[in-house]
Write a structure and sequence with these properties.
GO terms for molecular function: glycosaminoglycan binding. The chain has 19 helices and 21 strands. It is α/β, with parallel strands linked by helices. Among the domains are: 88 residues, Ferric Hydroxamate Uptake Protein, Chain A, domain 1 (Beta Complex), CATH 2.170.130.20; 191 residues, 3-Layer(aba) Sandwich (Rossmann fold); 181 residues, Rossmann fold. The chain has a 6-stranded mixed beta sheet, with helices on both faces. Strands 18-17-16-19-20-21 form a 6-stranded mixed beta sheet, with helices on both faces. Helix 9 runs parallel beside helix 10.
Length: 694
């Protein structure tokens, strides 16, 4: 009997040992399998914005093709959370256009995101945004757990498009007790891969504080008439439910979602297999800035580094065809996107021409790139001939006006697009445009080959039209299908306002010094007439600290600076200063006055300004004028000499710049001075416009 008992005990012990060894082996196998589980990197689309993803730090995989300008990016290095995640990665150089994995980390919002062009992506400027992010290579940091499934703040999550499914935690019954102030709400969402090694933190007001925690705040909005339930439907299934608003929590009367009783434990084993992360939320707390800005598009004020008023003259002729016309429209939309349209930056309007030109929309019609692109899409083709010359004339006379949004402080630019060659002449219309301060660019697509040039009404029409013939203003495109290659070079040149030479006209780019005879022979009444003549001339110019500037010197035996070139920066101030000039009376030392003007006025002239001296005298000088006049000519000062009554003609011709017939004038009476204002202005502008255009 005893032997039997011992045998049974031995068998039981042996069975126990076998089971123990088997269990240990099985546990090792399970452990090995768990260790072999790879981290599942979520995939997103190019249009996913960082602000739609709640997770503060995550690794994602971007597809190819995110270099497309339709995926907006705001900022440089640090990006506003309204930006495309993948677009920002391409812009920063972390990815190329073939896609790949990246690490994204949320950071605080900032005021002033600077746009830039990098790696084929044009990022835009933005005054401020509530949240930012940075992107880097997908190298996981030690001790940081990255989600296998992303948590989105919008019910229209783009995750499903990329094949990702996101599950939400189903809320257990809400305890009847009313949440106490300062208690913490938990929305429990943990991924299956994280469940094995994640420890839930103990909630406390300090860790949930929006100022001390990097975790973003909830974006749930209170629903009307639904105060009890939280929606827990997954994003994927919501597409099959009409009217459903899944994924957005609905708050109860207290604003609580799931209140964890103090001291209670949460069992991970009861969670679904795959859920998002743990978020710590105050009951009913929804930040005011989230409610007010979550769904709002950031409104860009435009790129201040590209402040131009831009007109595109597009070819709507019948020869272009519908397909090429669509390519032309797409090019315009891409330009609008790249320019970052806005009231503080570039403004853009479009004129379409065929037989006759017509404004599609002017400079003030659309004040941002998005609206402009929408309007471009709606443009329909006119048909007819390709009368570009008529279109340029139309733009000069009608487009750049204050009523059409022309700001006056921004350079005027006209970009003419033509299929082949124009069917009319452009030279005269372009000359008038240039003299009006319009910088003309030409884009010629599929231009005439050698045997077609005989059919052109105006050979070498591009050089006759553009602002300068140095190649900066002309683009020659072999095929419509290669038009997109001119996008970035064109944008760069249009925005280079320092090189827009035709913005400088005869009326807005001079430093003018008036040298006024105040001798006794003039008399008080005639002196006031001379001042009126000076005012009439000044009134013709565009006066500001960056445009034309005006100064004045009065002389007798001595000289007096009435006001310098840098004294007044508006036309009204200059005209008032001229009125206040007092009559001096004395002798006539014109030579000394010229030297004084060179020293006191033109020595302070800006290097990019034309220097004009306009001298008015009524008699022969008591001193020699030849050496001072020669000094003025050698210093590049263009001198106009106006003599009245007893002035010596030969002396006027010595003072005046060559040819004297264009720069010296004799008037028999003071009262006839006003008649010479138009002629003097015409001569000033003719001389300016005759400068070489190379």
């Amino acid at each position: 009997m005893g032997t039997l008992v011992l045998t049974m005990k031995a068998s039981i012990i042996e069975m126990f040992l076998v089971l123990l060894v088997t269990g240990i082996h099985s546990n090792k196998e399970v452990t090995k399998k768990i260790k072999r589980l790879k981290f599942n990197v979520p995939q997103i689309n190019c249009d996913v914005k960082a602000g739609k993803i709640i997770n503060p730090e995550f690794i994602v995989k971007c597809p190819a093709g995110c270099q497309d300008p339709k995926y907006h990016v705001y900022g440089t290095d640090v990006y506003a959370s309204y930006s495309s995640v993948c677009g920002a990665a391409v812009h920063s150089g972390v990815l190329d256009n073939s896609g790949g994995k990246i690490l994204v980390r949320k950071v605080a919002g900032q005021s002033g995101y600077t746009g830039s062009y990098s790696n084929g992506v044009q990022s835009l400027s933005l005054p401020r945004w509530r949240e930012s992010f940075i992107v880097s290579e997908s190298k996981p940091q030690k001790g940081v757990t990255y989600p296998s499934a992303l948590t989105y703040s919008s019910p229209k999550s783009p995750a499903a498009k990329a094949g990702e499914t996101t599950k939400a935690y189903h809320r257990p019954p809400v305890p009847e007790s009313t949440p106490q102030p300062g208690s913490v709400t938990q929305v429990l969402v943990v991924t299956a891969a994280e469940a094995a090694h994640t420890t839930l933190p103990k909630p406390s007001p300090s860790t949930a504080s929006p100022t001390s925690s990097p975790r973003p705040q909830p974006v749930g909005h209170r629903s009307r008439g639904e105060t009890d339930l939280w929606s827990t439907t997954t994003y994927t299934s919501s597409q099959n439910r009409p009217g459903a608003n899944p994924g957005i929590p609905r708050q109860d009367a207290s604003g609580a979602a799931f209140q964890k009783p103090v001291g209670a434990d949460v069992s991970l084993g009861k969670l679904p297999a795959a859920s998002p992360k743990v978020l710590l939320l105050f009951p009913g707390f929804v930040p005011k800035e989230e409610l007010s800005t979550q769904s709002l598009e950031p409104v860009s004020l435009g790129d201040p580094n590209c402040k131009v008023d831009l007109s595109f003259l597009i070819d709507g002729s019948s020869s272009i065809g519908k397909r090429r016309f669509r390519i032309q429209k797409q090019f315009l939309a891409d330009v609008a996107q790249a320019l970052d349209i806005g009231p503080a930056g570039p403004l853009m309007g479009i004129v379409q021409y065929g037989d006759n030109p017509a404004t599609q929309f002017n400079l003030k019609t659309h004040m941002n790139s998005h609206d402009l692109k929408t309007a471009i899409e709606k443009i329909t083709q006119k048909g007819g001939l390709s009368n570009a010359g008529r279109a340029i004339s139309f733009v000069t006379k009608n487009f750049f006006s204050k009523a059409n949004g022309n700001r006056g402080t921004a350079p005027n630019v006209a970009v003419v697009m033509v299929d082949g060659w124009p069917t009319d002449k452009v030279e005269e219309a372009s000359r008038l445009a240039r003299e009006s301060g319009i910088n003309i660019f030409f884009i010629t697509i599929e231009g005439a080959v050698e045997n077609e040039k005989q059919h052109m009404p105006e050979p070498n029409f591009v050089n006759k039209a553009v602002c300068r013939t140095n190649g900066f203003y002309a683009f020659h495109v072999q095929s419509w299908f290669g038009l997109h290659k001119t996008l970035q070079p064109l944008v760069k040149r249009v925005c280079d306002t320092e090189r827009l030479a035709c913005s400088k006209t005869c009326l807005n780019s001079a430093d003018i010094g008036f040298v006024i005879d105040g001798s006794s022979s003039v008399g008080t009444g005639n002196f006031r007439t001379v001042l009126q003549f000076v005012a009439n001339l000044s009134r013709e110019f565009e006066i500001s600290d960056t445009d034309t500037r005006v100064g004045a010197v009065q002389y007798t035996y001595e000289q007096r600076l009435e006001f310098g070139l840098d004294r007044y920066s508006s036309k009204a101030d200059v005209l008032n200063a001229i009125k206040r000039v007092g009559y001096w009376s004395g002798g006539t030392s014109t030579g000394a006055a010229i030297n004084y003007a060179l020293e006191q006025l033109f020595k302070k002239s800006k290097p990019n300004k034309r220097k004009l001296m306009i001298l008015v005298t009524d008699g022969r000088s008591y001193d020699d004028v030849r050496i001072p006049a020669l000094a003025a000519h050698l210093k590049g000062v263009i001198t106009y000499a106006i003599g009245v009554a007893w002035a010596a003609q030969e002396e006027l011709e010595v003072i005046a710049t060559h040819p004297a017939r264009d720069h010296s004038f004799f008037v028999d009476e003071f009262d006839n001075l006003y008649q010479y204002v138009p002629r003097i202005i015409q001569n000033i502008c003719t001389e300016f416009n005759s400068q070489p255009r190379n």
